Amino acid sequence: MTKHEFEVAMTCEGCSGAVTRVLNKLGDVKFEIDLPKKLVWIESDKDVDLLMETLKKCGKEVKYNGTK
């Protein structure tokens, strides 16, 4: 599986909770959230565009930083 890094404009636990909820609904992904650095790492074989659209559902600005 490929590990992707995204920058998500999270400011609180509620924001990271929203990210957790939308990613859990997607299924078949492993992820880590670093709230202080506003980073989300997702391990998945799913398309990057699908991952971006899923993260945007939490209502925050999302930027793709590439694979890690």
TrEMBL record:
One of its GO terms (biological process) is copper ion transport. Coiled coil: none annotated. Residues 1-63 form the HMA domain. PROSITE patterns: HMA_2. Keywords: Chaperone, Copper, Copper transport, Ion transport, Metal-binding, Transport. GO terms for molecular function: copper chaperone activity; metal ion binding. It comes from the Eukaryota. GO terms for cellular component: cytosol. Pfam families: HMA. Homodimer. Interacts with ATP7B. Interacts with ATP7A. Interacts (via dimer form) with SLC31A1 (via C-terminal domain); this interaction improves ATOX1 stability and controls intracellular Cu(I) levels. Binds and deliver cytosolic copper to the copper ATPase proteins. May be important in cellular antioxidant defense. Belongs to the ATX1 family. This is Copper transport protein ATOX1. It comes from Betta splendens (Siamese fighting fish).
